[in-house]
Amino acid sequence: MTGRAVTSLSNPTVKAVRALHLRKERDETGLFVAEGLKNVIEGVDTGHAPTILLYGRDAADHPLLRKAAQATAAAGGEVIEVTQDILAKVSRRDNPQAVVGVFQQVFRPLDTLEPLAAPCWVALHRVRDPGNLGTIVRTADAAGCGGVILVGECCDPYSVEAVRATMGSIFAVPLTRASESEFAAWREAWPGSVVGTLLSAPIDHRSADYRKPALILMGNEQQGLPPEMAALCDVNVKIPMRGRADSLNLSVATGIMIYAATA
Ligand code: SAM
Questions:
Q1: 197 Cβ closer than 6 Å to some ligand 1 atom
Q2: How far is the CA of 220 from the centre of ligand 1 (A)?
Q3: How many domains does the chain have?
Q4: pLDDT, tens only, 136-171
Q5: Which bin fits 224, alpha (ψ -120 to 50), beta or left (φ > 0)?
Q6: Could you tell me if the CB of 247 is within 6 A of ligand 1?
Q7: Which of 40, 72, 104 is the endpoint of a domain?
Q8: Which 3 state secondary structure label does DSSP give 73?
Q9: Residue 118 and residue 241 in one domain
Q10: How far is CA 236 from the centre of its chain?
């Protein structure tokens, strides 16, 4: 395959893709970067055509690259062959993926979510770590959750690190943002159980009533769930811990809760 070839790091499109490492730039453009042919194809197969597709010579003859390039061109995007050096700078890695796609971010408005469409939904209060967030999106996808709701000030699900951790699930799981007060008001009409997670809760997570659709509320990595958020839940539960660890990693705890709620 032969697309337009670019070798200069000062090319405006290359500069624009590199700038998407900055949250400010992602927020202003509404774009994000997904690396690797598998992830780009995941985007294409779920109806998200890249606005820009960069590829290295090594990937030029791959049939799936042709498919991604056709989808990009059909949507009016740019397809560009770049050097290994450009791919390394764009990915900030010595061994970059041979394909990089730029996609449009999607956030669903809270009032458009359909709770009954899935047995379990996840709400994260002030999640800080992009690796945790990406891993949770991947687990939510694997378990068939309806979506992930980011409550309060959270890290960016579209950062390169978070997107990497989703392993392609960024395209499959609906994401929503809400302030604490918007979430509190919306939760009033939730048709199933709202289950919070607290280290101080007396109830074992295995004995809670996960009336479907269950909405699982998880706390921040440092502070946990504050009392005003825990008070929004029908029940708060604890995952038992038997050793000396005083808590579980947020993404691990979320995985345990999702599978308990969907068992
Ligand atoms: N120091 C924090 C605290 O006091 O809650 C620890 C937060 S923990 C690392 C991050 C989140 O993971 C918690 O807010 C909770 O949602 C969940 N979590 C971690 N371990 C848990 C457990 N054993 N039971 C229930 N939730 C847990």
A1: yes
A2: 8
A3: 2
A4: 999 999 999 999 999 999 999 999 999 999 999 999
A5: left
A6: yes
A7: 104
A8: helix
A9: yes
A10: 25
Please, which pLDDT band fits residue 187 given cuts at 50, 70 and 90? very high
> 135: domain range?
110-261
Residue pLDDT, tens place only, 58-104? 999 999 999 999 999 999 999 999 999 999 999 999 899 999 999 99
pLDDT, mean of residues 252-256: 98
Q: 31 and 11 in one domain?
A: yes
Ligand 1 contact, 221 CB (< 6 A): yes
Query: Is there a contact between 233 and 194 (Cβ–Cβ < 8 Å)?
Result: yes
**250 and 156 in a common domain:** yes
Nearest to 236 by CA among 198, 210, 262: 198
DSSP code, position 159: S
Contact assessment for residue 197 and residue 218, using Cβ atoms and an 8 Å cutoff = yes
Q: How far is the CA of 135 from the centre of ligand 1 (A)?
A: 16
| Residue 233 in contact with ligand 1 by CB distance below 6 A | no
Determine the distance separating the centroid of ligand 1 and the alpha carbon of 255, expressed in angstroms: 12
**pLDDT score, position 2:** 63
Report the separation in Å between the CA atom of 247 and the middle of ligand 1, taken as the mean of its atom positions: 5
Q: Are strands 235-238 and 52-55 parallel, antiparallel or unpaired?
A: unpaired
Q: Indicate if ligand 1 lies below 6 Å from the C-beta of 250.
A: yes
Does 181 share its domain with 58? no
Q: Is the CB of 248 under 6 A from ligand 1?
A: yes
Cβ–ligand 1 distance for 253 under 6 Å, the answer: yes
Question: Does 241 contact ligand 1 (Cβ within 6 A)?
Answer: yes
Tell me: do 133 and 251 sit in the same domain. Answer: yes
| CATH for 221 | 3.40.1280.10
Tell me: do 139 and 49 sit in the same domain.
Answer: no
Q: Which of 104, 120, 139 is the last residue of a domain?
A: 104
